[in-house]
Amino acid sequence: MMIITAILTSLMTPLLVVSAFNTSPPQSSSSVANRVKSVNYFISRECNYKCKFCFHTQKNTNKLGIGNAKLGLQLLQHSGTEKINFAGGEPFLNPQVLGELCQFAHSECGMAVSIISNGSLIKSEWMDRYGQYVDILGVSVDSFDPATNALIGRGTGDTTKNQHVSRVLKVRELCAQHGILFKMNTVVCSLNHREDMNEYVTTLDPYRWKAFQCLILQGENAGGVNDLNDARELQVTREEFDAFIQCHSDQSALIPEPNTVMQNSYLLLDEELRFLDCSENGKIPSQSILEVGVERALSQAGFDDDMFQKRGGIFEWTRDRGGNNDSILK
Ligand code: SF4
């Protein structure tokens, strides 16, 4: 932490910030730049939902101050990051921090900006102010049936109202108003794997729809003494997952991600800007990029960049700010 203090108090330029960590790079810079093109930053573990399969559970309520979070973005930018995805927890529980980080990442770091949210706290006022800095807004939608959503842990459990779905429809509308690309994420589990979502998905018309096979990670959702969740009963077999994909094969936006593809192919930074190594079925944090720089922390990340490339981790992620997103919406 002494390094951070020195950087902040001396108001070093971004170039000097980077050089502060260049004493002994464990990897070549081109390799680092290729590996950090797209990074997911969980700004906090706090969430207002309690999804039973969640594998980034609310084990603490820590988050960085805005200055350190921005410094982290600068370090990533100078290492080659082109796209940042803000996630959580629920990132809209900290709307001001989220908004400022979106603005900074877009305007100061030149990054494409994406957010993954559960959709329940997105306000039109936030979109009016910060929507211009966001390229992609992804919402998690695991079911269009209120009873299933309640069983999963999304929403209030009031099955007389399809609250989660009406919120998602509202977010879809806000994205259209602000020219933001709308994305959907679905975790396929034992509670929804037989659901036919085609009608709603066609209405929502996402530009990407990711379907993930429910993943178990030690220390998070494996039912162990240190786990807040036990999602073992929610697991689906590869055959069940493939059947869900088959049922929705007419959806051109659909991107299937079974466990074998997703586990190590995302570069994840936790609330303290530490990469999370999921290669041993758990989440082992690296040292923070604020303490040792991106290159050294990356060497501890357990990240499979071949799988990242194979799963199509590089794609068209910048919206057309001229207002025409039709070419990449379809
Ligand atoms: S909305 Fe996301 S972060 Fe929150 S509990 Fe559900 S899966 Fe976890």
TrEMBL record:
Its EC number is 4.2.-.-. Residues 1-20 form the signal peptide. InterPro entries: Aldolase_TIM, RSAD2/Viperin_antiviral, rSAM, rSAM_sf. It is an enzyme of class 4 (lyase). GO terms for molecular function: 4 iron, 4 sulfur cluster binding; lyase activity; metal ion binding. One of its GO terms (biological process) is defense response to virus. Keywords: 4Fe-4S, Antiviral defense, Iron, Iron-sulfur, Lyase, Metal-binding, S-adenosyl-L-methionine, Signal. Residues 33-254 form the Radical SAM core domain. PROSITE patterns: RADICAL_SAM. The keyword ATP-binding does not apply. Its cofactor is [4Fe-4S] cluster. This is S-adenosylmethionine-dependent nucleotide dehydratase. It comes from Skeletonema marinoi. The lineage of its organism: Eukaryota, Sar, Stramenopiles, Ochrophyta, Bacillariophyta.
